[in-house]
What does this fold into?
Amino acid sequence: MPTSGPIMVMSITLPTTLKAVPAAEDVQICNSVDEDEVVNNASREGSGDHSLFSSALGFLKENKDEHERPIDEESVQHAHRKAYQEDSAGSLPASSLGSAAALQVLKQFTSGGTSGGGSQTQLISLAMAEASKLFDKSGGASSGNKQDAVNGAAMTVMKLLVQSKFSDGIMGGGNSGGLGTLMGLASKFM
It folds into this structure.
């Protein structure tokens, strides 16, 4: 039965997107990474062109909310074991293959097995390069592509950096976090 009388319409304007505000540590880390150097180093050390690594940095920027999400340590350790001890990286999804590569580089970094200075830029470069080489060496992944592997490595490193509260270079000391904090976080994986 129709009703008569005035009809009230309420109009509410809602934002179309909400953006997460990155933590102070995240902003400092993102600002301290030399993007051109990351891309150039990864291209030189890895098996891919500039666009592969540049796209991975874009992925990091687009997914800043992921930087604060905890790393699934058990999954990363499992992926690393499959890739580097059992030589079956091809059985892993591409993002897990990337995480395994990031952990491999982290282990080399914290044990002094890398050359050059210890910077966030270098760590991200080496992890992405390692993921690209591991992807090719393993003949691919069980799912996903090379870009997914490189993105996975970059995100794993970024999470480690953010969650270890870096403020300066990895080799910082004292209260800056630095290598001591990274070593503490890395020890969970070793």
User: Anything to note?
Assistant: The radius of gyration is 20 Å. Residues 164 and 185 are 7 Å apart (CA to CA).
